[in-house]
Amino acid sequence: MLMLRGFLVLMVFFLFGEALRVLFGLPVSAGVLGMILIAGFLMVWGRVSDSLAVASESFISVLVLLIMPGVVGVFFLADVFAGMWLAIGVALLLGTFLSVLTTLLLMRHFAPAASGGDTGE
Amino acid sequence: MSDWVERFNLLAQALLQSPSLAIALTLAAYFAGIYLFRLFGSPVWTPPILISATLLAGSLALAGVDYNIYWGQAQWLTVLLGPATVALGVPLYQQIHHIRALWRPILFTLPLAATLAALYALGLAAIFGASPEVLASLAPKSVTAPIAIGITEQLGGSVPLMMGGLLVTGVVATLCVDFLGRWLKIADERILGLALGLNGHAIGTARAFEISPAAGAFASLGMGLTGIFTALMLPLAFRLAL
Fold this sequence. Notes:
The complex is a heterodimer of chains A (121) and B (242). Chain A is mainly α. In chain A, 77% of the residues lie in helices and 0% in strands. Chain A has helices spanning 2-24, 30-45, 50-61, 63-72, 85-116. Chain B is an all-alpha fold. The longest helix of chain B is centred in the C-terminal third of the chain and has 29 residues, at 213-241. Chain B has 2 domains: 2-79, no CATH class; 86-241, no CATH class. The interface between A and B is large, with 76 and 108 residues.
């Protein structure tokens, strides 16, 4: 029961997201809009109800199962993108290396002030 | 005899017409993947989903089931990605107090780093002659899968190619953070966690939780914020660019 009540809340926020997407012609998926809406709602509300906590934990724990049908497709697309594997490989390997390097350098540059002045909480 | 052959043919057709078989296969591969992952000693370079997907792809190929038929039947599962994406907003809200502790590096680096994560990949792929469809599939490569599926569909990319890119990115980002973190002598677990979540989405976040709960919390935060930021910016940027 608890889980189903939380499921209903998640579905309602998903539908709100879908409504926003369609009504305002937003190029963002309904799920992301629903996620932003629910995070904003919780900030105003100030707490997470038990049913929502149970439902969100259950959904997040089975995310891997839900994305699997898409991942399986990786093994069936060899022909479609023939001739572009070099571009894809370089973009993924070198691109990821560069973005990790940039992130760490940026964080290191801005973090000392924060960790030095970390007296709050 | 021929009567029974015919009946088995009918059975095969009946099974392929309902989503039950696709769901059962997906569940079986899911548990087999987790089992084998533990058996191999939980290696960083092979997330359990890669093992599960390999097993499932092998079964489909052996059974002679067309991937598009499987994908159609599995919509029964994938439709739940919508509410599951909404569910990510709950832990995001629970992590929000970390933003107050580290707001400066987050504010200054996260939007820039998330943008660059997409731009590096797009720039490199474009230089090497990738098609617009490939670009649209690679752009959300640092975004967690449920959000990335939405982005790729909005941009007109290929979901399977995007998923492959996501897996490679997650594994490579995890290895790079380990290596570069040591090389740059960064020991702050919060920074390592943020970098893991920002670049390596769920795979990086899983690694961060192995470092420490604090690193994991910051990785979840980095993953969530990168997902939202990219989901909002990328489709707009694509709309302006094309």
